[in-house]
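Work through what follows:
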Amino acid sequence: MDASWEDFGWERLGPGTGRRRLPVWDATALLVAGADGVLLCDTGASLREGVELRTQAEALLGRRVTHIALSHPHFDHVLGTAAFAGARVYGAAGMTELLRRGAGELYADAVSQGLPEPDAAESVDTLVAPGEEVDGERVLDLGGRQVVLVNVGAAHSGHDLAVLVPGSAPLVFCGDLVEESGEPQAGPDALPARWPAALDRLLELGGEDALYVPGHGAVVDAAFVRAQRDALAGRFGGS
């Protein structure tokens, strides 16, 4: 079924692995399939986008998403999670409580960024927070394929989670710790001085030969991540 990834607007990154750049906000969703399980990293900006991702994932792989990793708690990455009934949802430690008490802020942010009010209301009303939190690292066994969820601490947001897909050419899902299609964004929940250290951690995880999948934009290499790290250190400080 991998040959049809492009027909659905997905970029195939390896066997059973691909990502899609979603419209409007250009947020990325990543699929990783093993023999027994399927991991989706980030779920889109609305319940409507989540349903579309679920439908496409099932068409591509012939089975349901079983695990979800949320890279950080911004609306364009989390509001589609309710579309994946039964999936185990992971986030960085502290993210569950943040989403449960911050629904109003999510709604306001989504609407201010252009999500239609009915979509924002429906998506926030059905919001699913992580049922399992990662403090440090967590290995998921998808059946003949392991992935590692890594809490890299606060940087772009207060709760940043990266995903390592090991292999001969490792792949690192970065969330908005790395952005290619625009300048990295530091909102009110960012800790910019810690951001360079978070990118150092990503580089440790993936190494020089990895593909780095940003939260927005094209897949990049280690040199791009290192250059963005240095630019952030110059802009915000940190070491």
